[in-house]
Amino acid sequence: MPETGAKGSRINTDPAPAACAALLAAAFAQEPAVSWICAGSAPVRTHWFRATLRTHAGLDGARRTALVGADGRLLAAAVLTPPGATPTLGARALWAARTGLRCGPRALARTLRYLNATDGCAPPGAWTLEFIGVRPDLKGRGAGRLLLDHVLAATPAPHGLYLTTAHPANVPLYRHFGFATLRETPLGPISVTAMSRAGQ
Predict the structure, then answer these.
(1) Is pLDDT above 60 for 65?
(2) What DSSP line would sit under 142-194, residue for residue?
(3) At what angle do helices 42-56 and 17-27 cross, to 10 degrees?
(4) pTM, whole model, 2 decimals?
(5) Chain centroid to CA 101: how far?
(6) Cβ distance 45 to 34 under 8 Å?
(7) Please, are residues 186 and 118 in contact by the beta-carbon 8 Å criterion?
(8) C-alpha torsion sign, points 170, 87, 75, 48
(9) pLDDT (0 to 100) of residue 199
(10) Residue 132 scores a pLDDT above 60
């Protein structure tokens, strides 16, 4: 059941994966890692998010949370993975096939390079904030902050939260929310910052 939010918006704790993928594909249009993986192509980015969120939805305990406007449209979306949750070998193979077919071998190879570069960074028992994004026309108007506040308050994460970002402007923003830098990893033309927030 959606919860009531501020300014006529509400929190939906079970938005459709496809709707979240569409919003995130738009929100991440200028994000360095996604731009590198998808070679700046909007169609590739759209297919990449669809394949990724479709696979993510099959994980036990996976969470999607969205801020929804009065008109029913998603304003912002967040995707979280619980500690220890990983796709089965079959799900990984299906994701790889979909990604390779719809996005091309370069996008598949670069995604795997990103995952390998960040593997093992998460603190034991931490949840992973995979993505959080805001509809582009609403940037800077508080939708992302409202959703992140909800995610931080509602996620049962006694061992903390973990995320990675390749956007330098995101690092001080996440620090404001209590995240600390764990490691910086160069990867091709980008630099990936791993961050964590202690459990409460």
Answers:
(1) yes
(2) THHHHHHHHHHHHS--TT-EEEEE--TTHHHHHHHTT-EEEEEEEETTEEEEE
(3) 140
(4) 0.93
(5) 22
(6) yes
(7) no
(8) positive
(9) 86
(10) yes
Rounded CA-CA distance 99/96 in Å is 5
| % the chain with pLDDT above 90 | 89
* Structural tokens at position 82: 């619980």
Query: How many whole angstroms separate alpha carbon 107 and alpha carbon 188?
Result: 13
Q: Which two tokens stand for residue 3?
A: 């919860």
pLDDT of 68 strictly over 80: yes
Asked if 162 and 128 count as a contact pair (C-beta separation under 8 A), the reply is yes
In this predicted model, what pLDDT tens digit does every residue of 84-117 receive, in sequence order?
999 999 999 999 999 999 999 999 999 999 999 9
Q: What are phi and psi of 82, to 5 degrees?
A: -75, 165
Which structure tokens are listed for 81? Answer: 């993975």
pLDDT exceeds 60 at position 3? no
DSSP 8-class letter at 123: P
Q: Are 132 and 148 in contact (CB under 8 A)?
A: yes
Taking 50 as the threshold, does the pLDDT of residue 6 lie above it?
no
* Tokens (6 digits) for 139: 């940037």
How far apart are alpha carbons 51 and 17 in whole angstroms? 10
